[in-house]
Write a structure and sequence with these properties.
The complex is a heterotrimer of chains A (413), B (201) and C (342).
Chain A lengths: L1 E5 H11 L4 E4 L6 H13 L6 E4 L3 H13 L4 E5 L1 H6 L1 H10 L4 E6 L13 H5 L6 E4 L3 H18 L3 E6 L7 E5 L3 H7 L16 E2 L8 H30 L7 E4 L6 E5 L3 H14 L4 E6 L1 E3 L3 H7 L5 E6 L9 H10 L5 E6 L9 H13 L5 E3 L4 H11 L21
Chain B lengths: L5 E9 L4 H14 L3 E7 L8 E9 L14 E4 L19 E5 L21 E4 L1 H8 L6 H12 L4 H11 L2 H28 L3
Parallel strand pairs in B: 1-4, 4-5, 5-6
Antiparallel strand pairs in B: 1-3, 2-3
Helix pairs in contact in B: 1-3, 1-4, 2-3, 2-5, 3-4, 3-5, 4-5
Chain C lengths: L47 H16 L4 E5 L3 H6 L11 E3 L5 H14 L6 E7 H6 L2 H10 L4 E6 L40 H7 L4 E6 L3 H12 L5 E6 L3 H4 L6 H11 L5 E4 L2 E5 L8 H5 L15 H18 L12 H5 L1
Helix pairs in contact in C: 1-7, 3-5
Classes of the chains: A alpha/beta (413), B alpha/beta (201), C alpha/beta (342).
Chain lengths: 413, 201, 342
Amino acid sequence: MLRQIEGSQAVAETVALCRPEVVCAYPISPQTHIIEAVGAKVKSGELTPCEFINVESEFAAMSVSIGASAAGARTYTATASQGLLFMSEAVYNAAGLGLPIVMTLANRAIGAPINIWNDHSDAMALRDAGWIQLFAETNQEAADLHVQAFRLAEELSVPVMVCMDGFILTHAVEGVDLLDQATVDRLLPPYEPRQFLNVDDPVSIGAMVGPEAFEEVRYLAHLRLLDALERIPVIAEQFHEATGRNSGGLMHAYRTSDADTVIVAMGSVLGTIKDVVDQRRDSGERVGVLGVTTFRPFPAAALSTALAGAHTVVVLEKAFNAGGGGVLAADVTLALGDRSVDVLSVVAGLGGRPVTRQSLDDLLDRVAGGTIGGFSFLDLDLGVVERERASLAGARRPAPLAATPSSDRAEAS
Amino acid sequence: MSDATVFEVRIHGRGGQGVVTAAELLSVAAFDEGRHAQAFPSFGSERTGAPVVSYCRFSDREIRTREPIAEPDAVVIQDATLVHQVDLFAGLTADGYVLVNTSRRFDELGLDEYVLDLRPERLVTCPATELALEHLGRPLPNAALLGGFAALTGQVSLGAISRAIEERFDAGVARRNVAAATAAYEYVLHESERMIGASPD
Amino acid sequence: MSEPVRFYQVGSFAVGNRLARAEDRTVQSCPDRANAIDSGHRACQGCGEALGARYALDAAMRAANGKVVVVNATGCLEVFSTPYPETSWRVPWLHSLFGNAPAVATGVAAAQRVKGRFDVRVVAQAGDGGTVDIGFGCLSGMFERNDDVLFICYDNEGYMNTGVQRSAATPPAARTATTQALGMSPGNVFGQGKDLPRIAVAHDIPYVATATVADLHDLERKVEHAMSLHGARYIHVLVPCPLGWGSESRETIHLARLAKETGLFPVFEAERGVVTAVSPLRRRTPVEEYLKLQKRYAHLFGAHARPDIVERLQRIADDNIERYGLVDDETRDDRPLAEVAT
């Protein structure tokens, strides 16, 4: 049913339809509305049977999820940013143990400096943990991805992170077509693990594995993620058959087939980019945008095929490797291999800085004019940067970042 | 850069005045009337009394962009004391609407320098806080201002606003908010007509 | 359980006791005990933790009609019991991380509830490191929620598996790899300590108990009593570590007894914030008798003896005796053991 609803509420409604058995989370902006809504459903009895547990930290949240999932319960949690890092040990543990936990990650920047607004640095921090990472473009997709996530997780015994931009999606009210219980039940059969903590058939889970076997165990995990690359499109297709929607899959291509220049990006910024693409297409420029929906495992082959005709690829992303370059850009570059195509890495929207159509338009002018470097930051206030660098020049003693760079100060060395 | 089919509204106020809810209700009203709508707050530290901005876009087509509204077609000011603190009129289009919550008249607000190039009949005040006190018993002007917005711009109907309010709040609270919205609607309608009648256009 | 269970007959208060009435016999003396942790594990000779875990889990299994899920923190017990691809565990067993055993157990318990398996009980276990230090946050959270988990801490007073480093449970003056016997204050500092049993009592949970591997009957009884209750329960078991303590492997049980009889390790029970029972000292014993059997205290004796430190340790013991009322005036016998024996 089509409703004008807050993104967090849409996700909560959909997660509830997935019949989770244990939900536990620790509050952190901007995920709070999701967890509050799911919690209310459990408390009122609307979502049953389900145990909702208020824990004392994110580390506890993922740990409780591990216990519940290992005991055979369909388990869900949500977090963001600092919370994801605080549970990072357990995040790796869940993947290593092969537990099909689904987690919503309300993408938010990681401090210091503390910043509660959107970027993708949190997801990037755990990109090698062995979780499947899916990025939603809209609240519709964010809701829909959760159904696919549980299905995928339980088929492959791999945990899945559904990423949705914090505030920009979580707190936006827009039209979402919510699924009904019957459709979700058809798409998502009950969770019946092959083995779990079972008093009738005991197993020991979580043994120490030494050098003689560790590599094989890890390689098997790698193969499961490669299997995911095969299964994700199939599950997305089944979802499409049931709902008519194209949510999920490996990527979404928009006007890329004859494009000379393709922007590659993830998450909500894709909507803004599409408006710019249409505008420039109207002026005759052959430009398109490729939205990466499945970031981990990285769909290298599919991406390479999708970019086959492009001369210039602009990777626009909300994270970067300090002292290095773009993160998504690195994956894209690797995927494109030897192909002679310019990959331009652009970092944008860090810490919630809005990415505007005007900025993107200017960016594409610079791309077209060849006046952009291989690695750049969108909308950077160079004046502030230069003043800060100048004030530190000549200083002999290091100091932590005690003041914002926009304040002028004289440094006594 | 603007798209002719999209109408963009920016709502300014202070934390605790229901600025975020106002944008959401506006989007629900537009949705009710079959349009695509998007509402979101600018996410500053949420503290009672701090300046807050929320946004609402509606369109007959799917809304894809997510950027904050830089060139609003309408600005709703829930708290006139913000005028010297925040650039309330930034980017307002030449045909833009301004609705200010105040018991004074627009020309008594000392905002002339900000609105020089705008169409005077689209600059309207509404004593929303007073109407809210009268109908709700609380100085929460957001519902009233939505009624005023409907009258001023005609972008949504009062009926849609009322239905949005009823969907969001419990019966008693909803009824009182609808009453405030209706009173404000009539006030602004009257004001607009008066100004159009008075303008040399 | 097709493999024959081995057990040994010793004196009147120990494992076997064929002479005792059936209802007084221990779980360990039963041939059909669960053997939750089976033989073949890699623990050191004389390991108090292996002993304590065996006693505790078999008692839990009997109390729960064999339906127990065990969650284990990282540590000696986990490492020596599951050298991949083997496991000593005959029960469903999960090892997640070092600091999260209480939270993982909460999750397992929630899963049982949601599936209507009210017959399945959850036991979480960890060493002192995983309980008192890195697991503390999760433990307190589990207590506060009153999750239906029995948490057992096997306290050998240090991080033994990683090479005997100091934990918050390490007693003052004890030598460890990070509290060396050097300088003016050799060994671990004299701080306030971190008395987990008291902290557990302060959480007002349904049941808290301390025990040692010197009194098997007592430990089994406490586990069985805990299993008769629901909600958050905590048992803190003193388990000497020959390697870490620098003691003879055959002295493990003796040391545990001395720890209790000196007053250094008070044995008591509490329910919902109130101490309900204490195990009085049978024979008040000076701390020296206990300390001298352990090389981790060797720096307090001999050439550079520190009677002042021994005195401070004695005061701690005396304070415990006072606090818990461990000396029952009617039964106490202050005569030195040598005198009594003649």
